[in-house]
Amino acid sequence: MNRMQVLRYVKAQYGVDGQYKWRRFPDDCVLVCPVTGKWFALLISRNPDVTHLTEDRRQNFLEIHYGEGATKLRQQGVFNAPTRMADGSWVSIRLDDQTPVAAVKEALDHAFDRARKTQVVQEKEHLITVLPFGDEQDGFSDQPLPKPAHFQPKQQLKMPEPLRKMRAKYDYTLPPLKGRNQNFYQQGKLMADYEDDYEYLGDFRHFFPTYHDMTVGQLRGYFTWRTKLRKGKIEKAPTSFAYVYIYELLNQIGVSSVQDGYQKLASFPRQYANYADEQMLKYLAQWRKDYVVYYQMGDQEKQAEFGDEIKIDHAYEVLKNVDDTKGDEVYQALISLASYHLDKCPLMKNNPAVVYRIVQLTWANLLKESQVNIMQNLLGWRGEVQVHLFGNAVFYDRQPVRTTQYKIDDAREYVCEWGKWRRQTFTPVKGRKQNINHLLHEIDRLIRLATHEGRPLKPQDVPDYELAAVKKAIQQYREEQLIAHRPKLDLSHANLQKIRDDASETQESLLTEEERQAEDAEATQDEYEEAAANAVASQSTISLTKSADTAAVFEPSFADETDDDEDQPQLSNDESYFLAHLLKGQPWQDYLRDHHLMASILADSINEKMMEVIGDTVIEFDDQGQPQIVEDYRPDIEDLLKAGESHAQD
């Protein structure tokens, strides 16, 4: 049973509305007997432990003035002691899905009947009159009884003249959907500068709310709240009030320019952060993007709203052609589309440039693969989808037949033809993140095998052509290193002459006087050149040998046999229990509580150990803070746990 059900019940049963009396606690209301003015119940909305909660997550309590039997009622276990009322004749109960409806209604009936009867007795005591003996009745006459307060008609709330004009402007001849949007815009323009000062303590909830859906009191309450908001005074309001204000900004109502409207939309989540719910913030984020596109704003707003999309588009553009791209850019492009990083690769710690180059060569090899289009198979393709700007909002399109386009970047563009919008962009292939994760994992694994460094990793299920591309890239890098370390011979005319002179001088210094005299006069200069060239070649052979030694760590050695003991993460008993129960979907909370363990600490420890084997995080926490297994790695974890059990039995 929730608070709205309580309010509906007392309204239908006793004709009583909740009275909101406290500015500090705007959601609290008291239920008063209309005949006697006695309080018989109190609705409280609180959460003392957590702030900034949405309406749905606040805790609601009902306190009932039960009377003398309150203590006995509390002993039955359904009701508790009051938290707000100090009088012991009150009882309290929390309102949620488990609240017993029948018990609450019975207690309310008792409290209301008690409050009503108490005053009736008092009225009878006041009406006792001593009459004189005899038949003389002079001075007395029949008088009509006064009507109870709840039968008196309510005083009609005064409607200000601007509100009357606004209501009169509503055009009922328009079709329903278009009419709602157009009427909202026209009425909003009329009320753009209107201010009010009216204390409204009620609620207003409506799907796609507009001015036309509000009563006079709700309208005055909304414009009073909007007046305060524009002056920097932020107060909690019914959720539908906030949506109406956002709709006004989307429609350029109450703003001086397109830029002013955008700034107000961008600042509203910060202003209203204490009261806005998650769904409102999601809608607002999408509507800001639509606002930038529809009003075709500049690069600053484009970057602010589409920054994440621009990064992804840039990654696609980089990966389309890697010939003129640096290795680190290709690496950054790939990891921006995945969750697997090569930070744990031993070679990354010592020489990241080598890893970048191998990743670049791998991707270049995949692009040249003739059997498959790697861009479409692994990443996605450029496509076009129809979009509806300002979906789920009340928005009046003043340019219903315009034709235009708005370019986000080279890969993303919005096109409008006769009022119909389309978005042209890369459409990601299903499982893109997992596919790239597996490719990066195999690059990491094969680099470790080729360099004989680091803990061996478990192979992932990838196509043969991807494995071939990685192995070929490692071989290509080794060959590049061999070529780069070869000494370069300068065979220019000037250098040859220097070689001749040096050889001649060396030979001259080694000859004795007799040998000089006996020297063959017919010796040619070609013999000296040949001797010098042989000396240089000898030096080159030595240098190449050293280069081969330097690059020997990249000698391909792709045997996949690994030590089973080396391949097993060393999990503690607590970690194994936690991981196994998460994997099977079994409860683990009692075990952690009994052993005084924290789920977050266990998860971090498991992720750290699994990083060495799988190369990525295997446990993540959802929006509710609950741990869960990353589905991509569920088969790997199952295999590891089975292998660990077999090893323990052996």
UniProtKB/TrEMBL annotation:
Residues 500-526 are annotated as: Disordered. Residues 152-369 form the TerB N-terminal domain. It comes from Candidatus Limosilactobacillus merdigallinarum. Gene3D superfamilies: 3.90.1150.30. Pfam families: TerB_C, TerB_N. Residues 475-638 form the TerB-C domain. This is TerB N-terminal domain-containing protein. InterPro entries: TerB-C, TerB_N, YjbR-like_sf.
